[in-house]
Amino acid sequence: MFNTTAWNRLRYSLYAPVYDVVAERAFRRPRREALGQVTWQPGMRVLLVGAGTGLDLPWLPRDIELHAGDLSPAMVTRLARRAQAMGRDVQAREMDAERLDFPDAHFDVVVMHLILAVMPDPVRGLAEARRVLRKDGQLCVMDKFQPDDRPAGLARRSLNALTSAIATDITRQARPLLEGAGFTIEQDTPVMMGSLFRALLARPTPA
Ligand SMILES: C[S@@+](CC[C@H](N)C(=O)[O-])C[C@H]1O[C@@H](n2cnc3c(N)ncnc32)[C@H](O)[C@@H]1O
Fold this sequence. Notes:
- It is a single chain.
- Strands 3-2-1-4-5-7-6 form a 7-stranded mixed beta sheet, with helices on both faces.
- The protein has one domain (5-204): Vaccinia Virus protein VP39 (Rossmann fold), CATH 3.40.50.
- It is an alpha/beta fold.
- The termini are far apart.
- 38% of the residues are buried.
- The radius of gyration is 16 Å and the shape is globular.
- It is built from 6 helices and 7 strands.
- 35% of the residues lie in helices and 26% in strands.
- S-adenosylmethionine (SAM) is lined by residues 5, 8, 12, 23, 50-52, 55, 70-72, 75, 96-98, 113-115, 118-119.
């Protein structure tokens, strides 16, 4: 499978100029629904992981402390530009979701939209999300997933060799991934294309 972090950095830097054309309108409702599942409070410290061009920004409350990281410098530049145009204070920087540059238990909310199916090692990404989340923190996920009750068949796995290299993995299963990483799923809502795209709200499972 041709899906590495170096390749993702390169291809998303190439996609950055056209990303909004493809993803802004298509994912507007799913991302609003996903963020609507979070219980927001003023002053919360929030991290967007694999934040892209910042298409989540319009749907986030203003009275939060917002941080954003992305592997691709071109994405970070666009996100910073969007934040400035919106008059929002966002700490945006280049960052690998597999090595978050933050201390343990630092965030009230971690948002992972359309990143778990992209990064080569989602288990590592979720372990990092769990590490930086407070013990009562919330993980907000929106992505495409294979149904939890059956692993991907041969045809889907074959197609995945192509889709994971140019777009996204289509074989990942939400519940095994999140529960395996130590999260308890509180909400799981189909948001697009039947139940292909789901919005999940999870919290760290108490030790
Ligand atoms: C499909 S886009 C989603 C962007 C944004 N979250 C959204 O909802 O529009 C995937 C993003 O993940 C970023 N990405 C891929 N691998 C990453 C990694 N290991 N760490 C951080 N960001 C990563 C890409 O650069 C790209 O911006």
